[in-house]
Amino acid sequence: MTGGSEMTDDRCLHELGQLSDVLAELRCRSLFLVADPIAYVVSGAAGQLAPILSRYRVTSFQDFDPNPKLAQLVAAVELFREQPRDVVLAVGGGTAIDLAKLIAWTGPQDASPRELVLGRRQPVQPAITSIAVPTTAGTGSEATQFAVLYVDGNKHSIDSPDLLPKYCVLDASLTAALPARITAHTGLDALCQGIESLWSVRATERSIGYAAEAITLAWRSLADAVNRPDGPTRAAMLRASHCAGRAINLTRTTAPHAISYAFTSDYGIPHGHAVALTIGPMLVHNAGVTAGDNQDPRGVEQVHGRIARILDLLGCEDASAGCARIGDLLDEIGCERRPSRLGVVGREAIAKIAGKVNAQRLGNNPRRLTHEQMVTMLESFG
Ligand SMILES: [Zn+2]
Rounded to the nearest whole angstrom, what is the distance from the C-alpha of residue 286 to the centroid of ligand 1? Predict the structure, then answer.
């Protein structure tokens, strides 16, 4: 079973070598390893884990894509049910971790993964203990109770306290070999998740603390982590990503994430980059919130206060300056900021993107965003 509804510092290890103590404490005898095959080797995790894993019976599952599909979960769960293991260990980016969380949750049940993922049947058995070892600094999946899975071509977000890993290993040395492009995309996800969590209508004092830490660290370190990476900037981004995960675990995401999914599914724009396309313009939109279109039940003044906090963290005087600075950051880390240059050309294409946005997620945004406003916004920055 997971050890609570929130990831806490005492469940975060900082060196992969510490895993041996945790496995001993858990009285673990066997492991189900879910590893991204490239990241597993390139990050150095394979080499470091070899002497530890040699003491356990290990089943390894490495056959999955960046956007995990139900068929892959089904194959993994079949393997798990043939060879039940004490602990599920994930090594990789958000995909490996999400998949591992789903295996730990669905593996011990009688129901099929499809029935469980679609909510047609409820889990009866407690989830297997899971441990997440991120090799990218971005999604914060090691600190959330969500997992993404594609079912019959549609993106599904599963949200259950049983998905939260019991432990995570935040070892920045594992991110040292990340290519600049992936550092940029995943780092943008961390920054945007921090900003969205802070303005979310579900923000609490606790979530704001995590979000503020994520924004501060990512804002200060992302350009260096991409262009001049060293140990401290890598560590700052890994912590930023983790704090952003803790923040959205409490608040969920808002409009930029809601809009981003069609950019990713229809144009192949990587997740963090896709989210960052609208974060600046949405900062301007949200800063203009009035009593008439405010969605936060605590009142419009609360929202203005949180936007002011974001601007303060970004060191910007007003929302247009914030939007411009975010655009500069995209340039600096080599990410195109105009959707038209990424293949999203013409009003029809833009209207299609806006039409795919999940209305429920927009409800989490502090200011209402109509379809027309969305189209106008997307057109305005070309
Ligand atoms: Zn994200």
Answer: 19
State the distance from the centre of ligand 1 to the C-alpha of 291, rounded, in angstroms.
29
How distant, in Å, are the alpha carbons of 5, 91, 98, 165 from that of 103?
18, 14, 9, 12
Q: Distance, CA 140 to ligand 1 centroid (Å)? A: 8
Whether the per-residue pLDDT at 141 is higher than 70: the answer is: yes
Residue 35, strand partner residues: 91
- Report the distance separating Cα 139 and Cα 90, nearest Å: 14
CA of 119 to the centre of ligand 1 (A): 23
- The alpha carbon of 337 and the centre of ligand 1 are apart by a number of angstroms equal to 17
Residue 1 lies in a domain: no
Q: H/E element holding 32?
A: strand 30-35
Q: How many Å lie between the centroid of ligand 1 and the Cα of residue 283?
A: 17
Tell me the per-residue pLDDT of 12-66, one tens digit each, with 9 for 90 and over.
999 999 999 999 999 999 999 999 999 999 999 999 999 999 999 999 999 998 8
Judging by beta carbons within 10 Å of its beta carbon (0-12, 13-18, 19+), is residue 230 exposed, middle or buried?
exposed
What pLDDT does residue 2 have? 39
Range of the domain at 139: 9-174
Do residues 163 and 232 both lie within one domain?
no
CATH number at residue 281: 1.20.1090.10
Model confidence pLDDT, tens digit, residues 182-231: 999 999 999 999 999 999 999 999 999 999 999 999 999 999 999 999 99
Does residue 127 share a domain with residue 248?
Answer: no
Strand partners, 89: 33, 131
Residue 352's pLDDT is what? 93
Separation CA 254–CA 364 (nearest Å): 5
Find the CATH number of the domain harbouring 38: 3.40.50.1970
What is the Å distance from ligand 1's center to 30 Cα? 32
Q: Could you tell me the pTM of the whole model?
A: 0.95
Cα-to-centroid distance, 301 and ligand 1 (Å): 27
Residues 218 and 353 in one domain: yes
Task: Establish how many alpha carbons lie within 13 A of residue 295's alpha carbon, considering only the half-sphere containing its beta carbon.
Answer: 20
